[in-house]
Amino acid sequence: MPEVLPVRPYENRIRERVFKVLQEAGLTVAVKKAIPPGLSDAEVVERLRYQHPAVLLIPYHAQTDAEGNSSNGLELAQRIEEQLPRLERVPILMPVSATAIQGVRGMLGFRTRRGPVSVALQRRVLLIDEAELGDPTLPERIRRHAAMREEPARESA
Predict the structure, then answer these.
(1) Cα–Cα distance for residue pair 75/15, rounded to 1 Å
(2) Closest C-alpha among 53, 114, 123 to residue 84
(3) How far apart are CA 125 and CA 56, in angstroms?
(4) Residues β-bridged to residue 64
(5) Where are the strands (E) in the chain, listed by range?
(6) CA distance linking residue 90 with residue 100, whole number of Å
(7) Which of 12, 54, 101, 112 is the most exposed place for a label (fewest CB within 10 A)?
(8) Angle 34-38-43 (CA atoms, 0-180°, nearest 5)?
(9) Beta strand pairing status for 111-112 and 115-116?
(10) pLDDT tens sequence across 69-123
């Protein structure tokens, strides 16, 4: 079973619902290895240097770190892509609130405050609308996405 590493997980009410769907998809949630909320993007990246996740669970929700800097899951995913190339093929599951899902879809296809979202990152992120957590087709979509590993880019001759 692929192991999912939660990064800055939601509060318990939503977290338990998301973890339940991941387990229904046949995934193992590495609760004890979770990277806690409140850390800056730089601190998260530093902790990820020493982990080897099969799948990342990065909620979209905006958060503020101890220094007062705000960030969201999509911006964090961009930073991970930029600074940790060894994780460039790790699928990302990104729960998003029902009220924010349309805006996040737009950003994923275009840009965030960090700049344009790469095509590779767009493919690696599966947005999970929290309103669909009870959808019986969701576990299969998550299972397929978690199994996805993009082929490395090849140089043309």
Answers:
(1) 20
(2) 53
(3) 9
(4) 70
(5) 3-6, 28-29, 55-57, 63-64, 70-71, 92-96, 111-112, 115-116, 125-129
(6) 24
(7) 12
(8) 70
(9) antiparallel
(10) 788 999 999 999 999 999 989 999 999 999 999 988 988 888 777 778 898 999 9
